Amino acid sequence: MPEATVAQRITRAKRKIADAGIPYRVPDDEELNARLSEVTGVIYLVLDEGYLSTAGCSQSRDLVDDADWLATLLHELMPAEPRWPACLR
To answer: 58-84 burial string, b = 16+ CB within 10 Å, else e?
Structure first.
């Protein structure tokens, strides 16, 4: 998919979120639990893309770093979650 197409989709999504008045906040515990599978799935996709990179080398390193940062942040929000890989415990 062309980069311009992805950028336009992100712009539309941001506008839709702003128009709907969806707050930018950390979800409460119940919401976090309900969203965990989807969020971890996205983190794994970002990590895979960074590791297997269909883009340039510098972008792949950035994606791996971003996935690591997101996984660490999620672990800090939910330290007792039993599904974390051993490397995050």
So the answer is: eebeebbeebbebbeebeeebeeeeee
